[in-house]
Structures are given as structure tokens and as C-alpha cells.
Amino acid sequence: MIRVAFIIGDYPSEERALREKVAKSFSSAEVEVGIISVPPAPFGGLGPAEIQLVAPYYHAGYLQAEREGYDAAVPLGTLDLGVDGGRSLVDIPIIGPCEAMFHIAAQLGDRFGIICYHESVIPRQITQTRYYGMEPWIAGRRASGFKLKDIGANKDVMIKNFMTAARSLIDEDGADVIVVHGITQCPVHLKPDWLAGELGVPVVEGIGAPIRMAALMAGLGLKHSRKRWPKSSARPQM
Questions:
Q1: Distance CA 12, CA 80 (A)
Q2: With contact defined as beta carbons under 8 Å apart, do 11 and 41 qualify?
Q3: Measured distance CA(23)–CA(161) in Å, rounded
Q4: Average pLDDT, stretch 68-74?
Q5: Fewer beta carbons below 10 Å: N end or C end of the chain?
Q6: How many Cβ atoms from other residues are within 10 Å of residue 71's Cβ?
């Protein structure tokens, strides 16, 4: 049995339960998904300063996952929080959801349509895309129009906006894969298989994709390059 730790920050109880349920739904006969909690509360939104400030908490979560015998770890959310440093701290694979989505999407098409929560987060998404060297693959970007904390109360409108954005990316920008940059859109409220059927193109989301990639890497016995991520003995100071 391969064990994948899913690292979750602090959410309102109903929102947290929903995310835990979705993550655990990607368990199988061969893969067990477990939950590890960390203190940061991303539900209110994270800007560039907050993204850097919360990294040590996620580093501590990765260290805890390794101590508890998990074979790999994935942080919740497409900001890939603490992933780069985590890979130097532990010997188990640490899989960033955004990075995983890009690499899976690249096996399915070559023109990615990105859908974010809100227009305000698109600059950060562009920064991530450039960091991962994937900008040439991007057909276009859209937003479903709501900040994270407001999606639950506006679910139906968000879904309508999401579908409009996806069809625009496909019909106007030539996207042949939709990448969902924001897990509260999909798979929390929208299911990728239903979306793919409606849109006629693959839809790659940020919970199942990184969890299954993490399990694949662990099952193959693959670890991060120590040339790229030298092993560090540093420990988070919080």
C-alpha cells in the first residue's frame, strides 16, 4: 500500500470536511490518502508575502509526513506552497499540484486554457507558469469571477462563469486542455469527468492529479534529484 499525505491548512469546518472528502476519494486498493494539518489559513486568500510566510509550516508538514511513514506528500492548493524547500528537507517525493497539472496536461494536448478563481490571482498564475517553463503551452487565461471565500455562496454563478470561460478558451483561443487553477472550482464543486464530457476536451484538476502522480513516483521508487535539491538539515523556525 502506497501512502500519500495530503497537507491541509486551516479552513472553516464545512469547507475543510469537503476538501478532505474529495482528497480521500482518490484513495484506491493500492493508494491510501491521509490528512496532515498545518496552521496557515489560505481560505481568506494568500498574496505574495503570505505565500512566503507560510512556507515553513508546510515544510513542517512534509517533515511530519516523512516521520509518519508516508511515501509521498502533496499540499492542498495550486500555489504549490513550500514545495521547493520541502524537496530539500525530506527524501519522499513532494508533488506541487500546479506543476503536476502542467505535466499531465502536456500528455493530453499542447494548448492549455487556464481558469483561475478571480482576475486578481492571474498575475501569480503567470509567475508560476513562467517558473515551470510552461508559458509557451498557454493558449489563454480566464477567471470564474469570485475570490476563494466567496465561491461557496455563489456556487451556481461560479459554475456558469466557469463554463463560459472554458468554452471561450476552447473556441476563441484554441485550447485543447483545460487546466483548473483553483481546486474549489474543480474538483471540489465541479467534477473533471463531467466537465470533459460537456466541453469535449480533457480537464486537469489539482487534487487527484498530484495525488496520483505522487503515488506513481513513490511506486516507481523515484526521488527528487539531490543535484537539483541538495539535502538540507535546516528545520522550520516558526
A1: 21
A2: yes
A3: 25
A4: 98
A5: N
A6: 21
- Residue 41: CB atoms within 10 A of its CB come to 14
CB 207 within 8 A of CB 22: yes
Please state the rounded mean pLDDT for residues 132-138. 97
Amino acid of residue 83: V
Domain locations in the chain as residue ranges: 2-96+209-219, 98-205
Cis peptide before 187 (omega within 30 of 0): yes
How far is the CA of 142 from the CAs of 13, 184, 194, 220, in angstroms? 29, 15, 20, 36
Separation of alpha carbons 176 and 199, rounded Å: 10
Higher pLDDT, 95 or 150: 95
Q: What is d(CA 118, CA 161) in angstroms, rounded to the nearest whole number?
A: 11
Which CATH class, in words, describes the domain spanning 2-96+209-219? alpha beta
Look at the pTM and tell me if it is higher than 0.85.
Answer: yes
Q: Are 2-96+209-219 and 98-205 in the same CATH fold? A: yes
**d(Cα 30, Cα 180) in Å, to the nearest integer?**
26
Per CATH, the architecture of 98-205 is what? Answer: 3-Layer(aba) Sandwich (3.40)
Nearest to 84 by CA among 132, 50, 134: 132
Instruction: Spell out a b/e string for 80-118, using b for 16 or more CB atoms within 10 Å of the CB, else e.
Output: bbbbebbbbbbebbbbbbbbbbbebbeeebebbbbbbbb
Distance CA 155, CA 176 (A): 25
Task: Please write the tens of the pLDDT for every residue from 206-219.
Answer: 999 999 999 999 99
